[in-house]
Write a structure and sequence with these properties.
Strands 3-2-1-4-5-7-6 form a 7-stranded mixed β-sheet, with helices on both faces. Helix 6 packs antiparallel against helix 7. The chain has one domain: 3-Layer(aba) Sandwich (Rossmann fold). Helix content is 47%, strand content 21%. Strand 2, helix 4 and strand 3 form a beta-alpha-beta unit. It binds S-adenosylmethionine. The site of S-adenosylmethionine has 22 residues, from helix 1 and helix 3.
Length: 229
Amino acid sequence: MPDKEKIRELFDDIAPQYDSFNHKSSFGADRSWRRKAVMEIADTDRPIEVLDVATGTADFAIEVARKAAPGSHVTGIDISEGMLQAGRDKCKGLPVELMTAQAESLPFTDCTFDRVCVAFGVRNFEDRMKGLSEMYRVVKKGGKLVILELSYPKNRLIRAFYKIYALKILPRIGTGMTGNADAFSYLPASILKFPLPQEFMPMLNRAGFNTVRHSQFMFGVCRMYVAYK
Ligand SMILES: C[S@@+](CC[C@H](N)C(=O)[O-])C[C@H]1O[C@@H](n2cnc3c(N)ncnc32)[C@H](O)[C@@H]1O
C-alpha cells in the first residue's frame, strides 16, 4: 500500500497541473465517467448531505453540488492541502466545503451523510480496508457509497494495448506536464495493481455494505462501484 506522506507530497507537487493532465490523459473521458457517477449520487429530489472523500481539486464535488437538489451540501476532504487549494476558487458560490482530513479517520460522527463518494482516490489510500470501513460508518442507514476508480480491461488484447499506453505513454505525458517523473511512474503502475471487481466487491461487503454493484466504462479502463448501507 502507498505511504500516506509520499502520496500527500506527490499530489501537493502536481496539484497546479492536475486538472489539465486528467482531461488530456483520458481524452476528456473522465468528464463522462464523473457524470455517470454524479447521476448515482444526485438521484433524489430531496436535499442531501454528501461527503466526497479524496476530493482533490474538487471537480467531482462541484459536479455533485450542481446536480443535487436545492438545499444539498457537499463536504470534500483530502490529505493534500495543495490539491484543496487548487480547488477552493472553483467552489466559490457553491454549497461545497473543503477540509483537510484522511479517509482512514474521518472527522464525522456515525451516520452523517446520505451519500459518500470517492473518484479516483481509493487506490491511493494507505489502508484501503480502514478507508472503506470509515465510509461505511459515516453514511446513513439506507445511504449509498459511489466509487469511481481506474482499472484495466479484462480482455487480453485490449489490455495489452492499454498497458502500453499506461506504462509507456502516460508517464511521458504526465512528466512532460508536471516535471515529476516519480509521480508518473507510481500513478499508472498503481492502476494495474488495483483489485478487479471479483476481489474489490467482497472488500466492500467486509466493510459492512450489503448490496454492491459494478459497472465498467471504456472496456474496464474505469469502473464504478455502488454500495448500500
Ligand atoms: C487522483 S486524485 C483524485 C481527485 C478527485 N477526486 C478527482 O476526481 O479528480 C487522488 C486524491 O486522493 C487523495 N488521497 C490519497 N490518499 C488519501 C487518503 N488516505 N485520505 C484522503 N485523501 C487521500 C490525494 O491527495 C489526491 O488528491
